[in-house]
Design goal:
It is a single chain. By secondary structure, the chain is mainly beta. The chain has two helices and 33 strands.
Length: 410
């Protein structure tokens, strides 16, 4: 186990300038790799629990052997123990947002080509792909209802990005929102009766909830600066999201019964909030300011009060990568001070590693994610235990772009 002191930042009273307030009173318990340590690779430890569906960049020949090569996404599957890696689908264009149906038998995805995205569904083995959109507009972000009978998605077919819903076979397509500005990121409640989503109808981004038929649209989290990425708790009683005030990002958790909204944590940047299947943990990815903190995957207790969270041991960093920086002065390995050299006077700014594609295993024991934390600079798919051990890189998942990952029990 390694120890890490993570900085906590607040808005400085005069002018809203970033100011380091304090280090945590107790060091965080780190269960990932030590700074500068190469993550383990090979089979993931523990029993195999299903498989992973992910995007992987590949080269495509648009003009055959004579040339015209380009890089695009394909959809692959791989067992969690690193075996049975296979490509399900590769097309001329881009394949995005693979989403596994609740029963694990179907995969919805986006095929983006000729300036528009279309929603497809295929069998879990890659066969039987069908274009559900079948239009001349751009559709994106398919999300399965909990019973697998419907898909919510986003489309600009009326000239504005709005939320739609359709049956799993593509029939019954219906528009749910009708507002100027962005409406997107639909997420079904666990009982399938409501949909949470982002909207800009109030001037900045807010989190709203509506019935699955589009009625009763109301704000749930509405603060200055905007909110994004709504995430339902497994019992459907709470919504988490990323708040974006003037300085940094917050984790906000709303109690839908009382209307109370609590701020859980603040960092420079937070994304990919995911509730564990038992609702006892909230995972996400973070990135600190360049020249100060790294990036990685964290897990917190959503029931801990803000004071306890800021100074307790419930913040667990499961994976972390320090920024790559030029060593213009001082001794390599020490905490650096910003200089004209590292700030862009004679070289690029520091390279902060990227994490994303976060998802829980169906049993809640592990998480999968994508990152370029390895020394080769490629993005790979990793698996890490919820309660510790090193993240394990799955071989043959190298990709030029950040990958989207879904976990299937089948």
């Amino acid at each position: 186990k390694h120890q890490l002191s993570m900085r906590v930042y607040n808005s400085y009273a005069a002018g809203g300038i970033w100011k380091p307030v304090s280090l945590l009173a107790s060091s965080l318990d780190i269960s990932g790799s030590a700074p500068g340590e190469e993550p383990a690779s090979g089979p993931a430890t523990g029993p195999s629990v299903g498989r992973l569906v992910c995007t992987v960049t590949e080269t495509l020949g648009y003009l055959g052997a004579q040339g015209g090569w380009a890089t695009a996404n394909a959809i692959h599957t791989i067992d969690v123990d690193g075996t049975n890696h296979r490509r399900l689908r590769q097309l001329k264009g881009y394949l995005w947002s693979p989403a596994v149906s609740p029963d694990g038998r179907r995969i919805a995805f986006i095929h983006y080509a000729n300036g528009r995205g279309q929603i497809y569904v295929m069998n879990g083995d890659g066969t039987g792909a069908i274009n559900l959109s079948s239009n001349h507009f751009c559709d994106r972000s398919p999300v399965w209802s909990p019973d697998g009978s419907k898909l919510a998605f986003v489309s600009e077919r009326d000239g504005d990005w709005e939320i739609f819903v359709m049956n799993a076979d593509g029939s019954g397509q219906r528009q749910l929102t009708h507002n100027p500005g962005w409406d997107g990121s639909p997420v079904w409640s666990p009982d399938g009766k409501r949909i949470a989503f982002e909207t800009k109808r109030g001037g900045d981004m807010d989190i709203y909830v509506m019935s699955a038929n589009g009625l009763g649209q109301r704000p749930v989290i509405q603060r200055p600066g905007g909110e994004r990425e709504p995430a339902w708790s497994p019992n459907g009683r709470r919504l988490a999201c990323v708040g974006a005030p003037r300085n940094g990002n917050d984790i906000l958790v709303a109690d839908l019964d009382s209307g109370e909204v609590r701020q859980m944590m603040r960092m420079s940047w937070i994304s990919c909030l995911r509730w564990s299947p038992d609702g006892q943990r909230l995972a996400g990815v973070f990135r600190g300011p360049p020249e100060r903190d790294g990036a990685g995957v964290f897990v917190i207790d959503p029931d801990t009060s803000p004071g306890e969270l800021s100074y307790g041991s419930d913040e667990r960093v499961l994976a972390m990568a320090e920024p790559i920086r030029p060593y213009s002065s001082g001794v390599r390995g020490r905490s650096p001070e910003p200089t004209w050299y590292s700030a862009g006077g004679a070289s690029p700014r520091w390279v902060v590693k990227t994490f994303g594609g976060l998802c829980w295993s169906p049993d809640g024991s592990r998480l999968a994610f994508s990152s370029d934390m390895a020394d080769d600079g490629y993005f790979h798919v990793y698996v890490v235990a919820r309660d510790g051990e090193k993240p394990v890189r799955l071989e043959d998942t190298a990709s030029a772009w950040l990958q989207e990952v879904s976990w299937s029990s089948q």
